[in-house]
Amino acid sequence: MHRLSAFQVLLLILLVAFVVVPIAMPVIFSFSLFWQDILPEGFTLRWYQKILAKPATSRSLGVSLIVATSAVLLNLLIAVPAGYAISRLHGRFRRFMTTVARVLPLVLPPVIVGTALLLAFSKPPFAFSGTIWMVIVAHTLLGFPFMIRNTLASFDTIDVDTLSEAAASLGANLWQRLRYVIVPNVLPGVLAGALLVFAISIGEFEVTSMVAGFEAQTLPLQLFQQIRNDMRIASAISAFLVYVSLVCFLGMTWLGGYLRERRA
Amino acid sequence: MTAAPVLAIEGLEKRFGAVLAVAGVDLAVAEGEFVSLLGPSGCGKTTILRCIAGFEQPDRGHVRLAGAVVDRLPPERRDIGMVFQSYALFPNMTVAGNIAFPMMLRGMPPAERARRVEALLEVVQLPGYGERRISELSGGQRQRVALARALAKEPRLLLLDEPLSALDAKIREELRVEIRHIQKELGITALYVTHDQEEALAISDRVVVMNAGRIEQVGSPIEIYRRPATLFVAGFVGTMNFFEGLVLEGRFRWREHPLVHHGAAAFRDGDAAVLCLRPEEMRAAPAGEDLDLANRLEGVAGPTTFLGSVARLRVLLAGDRPVDIDMPATEVGRFPMGEAVTIGFSAEAGLLLPAGREDAGGGAVARLAPAHSGEATSGRGTTEEARREAS
H/E/C letters for each residue in chain B? Predict the structure, then answer.
């Protein structure tokens, strides 16, 4: 590795500070008893215990976990078959479908997604507005572009047509081709997408605040409430959200490394 | 033949949109035979292979395996093994996992599977490679594994779709000798698709030359090379010099030159004919030196290409007509560029073929210049071509 100049080192330190400091603040705060002066004092887990002890926050923790898990499962059900279908298309239509699936949901502003959901699901038979179902639908939708992006990328790393034909020539029926050849090869990428969807769902605020109502308060919505009530609990909630994001991040990094190694 | 041939194709037709990829093909392959389908890109050879494997449905005609029509059977229920140009190994499995895959599907016990995998790795000369990842193997090794995997099923018929096209020239030659050896050793029946005429001639019992969805000629490699049935085959296989002319009074005339050829008697007066001469069937001498041959033409020496054991001299006849002539490599230097040269050939050399039949797919067919089928054999871009042909 070549030597870095002092200026480069300074830039790198600033970059790390820019990324890490805002994340570290609530984490440090959440473990401290007092923080009046420059440095925090005392170590405690009290604020985390309070999340579980208070009915409102413990309930929203449950809601968040259910919503995130459901959004992941729904996305798996939708994105994997969709990715398989798109990967078997060719030419211009394939590029068009790929762009529609990957980019279109990303460029829509969250406020508009929220409004659209409210309009779509306010009347029977889909009167989901204000229920946990509504939040699940919203988070599935918000996670979809990331899920399909990862899924398509992993389908692109293999020649689905030829591998399927090779497996068929060796005696594998459609189920066996998917079970032994296609799914194992796309799984790491799909799992990375699933982790991303989970992380997005756990932290989503904007659209959720529009569609959740009182029944389906997720953890970020509680966080917003607690900022005005009790800054200590708020810091513990945000620290918890940071941990979830970090675990997802580490998982994705590991999967990425695994994929690179296998393809080397 | 008493028993039904391992493979029989009857009146096979396949159309992709407006393109008739296979235009009525009949072919039978006997037990233990190694047959090649040879032709340029888009001639329908890969489509035929894919119809046999069950990846494409023929529009007309039938495919029979060991006598039984298999048109309605999906690929997984046909008794075939297939080797692909792109290897098509499963990257999620080890070498052993890939080879054991067809045995696993059949429910063979793991101990027996492991034993057979080892035996097959011996056959393809990769002993001890079982636990390697596919990504750790070279192209040649990957294709050996793919071959072992296709053999693991013990299929009645082995299909090979341009298996060597993605490999380097050296490995390609090594592996084709080995494929042939394994095929003979195990008594496998094989159908081999290639656009490389040298490969087809080297490896096959019989070669089927195809053009524009039709069979041009079926024969042993020597027949195909020595006695091409059509101008297309003459131009596609090996290097050939063409002289287009007329038969008049029992003699073949090329331009103003009357030439003696033993085949001329078979033509009627006034028939258009093409004299086809291989580079090794002609000789060259510096002008003035005597050539004791029935036919002689005057020209000017062009560039000489050194090919190892032989050298190929290009001679420009009147009107800048190039003719390629082979000579022993020791004679390189006898013909400086621009010097006058006499070329000659006997009355028995070469073939006199009827001219005329403009070929539907060709372009290569009636070319006046020596046709270098070798042009089509470079490995580059073949994946793309094969794909275009298939889709």
Answer: CCCCCCEEEEEEEEEECCEEEEEEEEEEECCCCEEEEECCCCCCHHHHHHHHHCCCCCCEEEEEECCEECCCCCHHHCCEEEECCCCCCCCCCEHHHHHHHHHHHCCCCHHHHHHHHHHHHHHCCCCCCCCCEHHHCCHHHHHHHHHHHHHHCCCCEEEEECCCCCCCHHHHHHHHHHHHHHHHHHCCEEEEEECCHHHHHHHCCEEEEEECCEEEEEECHHHHHHCCCCHHHHHHCCEEEEEEEEEECCEEEECCEEECCHHHHHCCCCCEEEEEECHHHCEEEECCCCCCCCEEEEEEEEEEEECCCEEEEEEEEHHHEEEEEEEEHHHCCCCCCCCEEEEEECCCCCEEEECCCCCCCCCCCCCCCCEEHHHHHCCCCHHHHHHHHHC
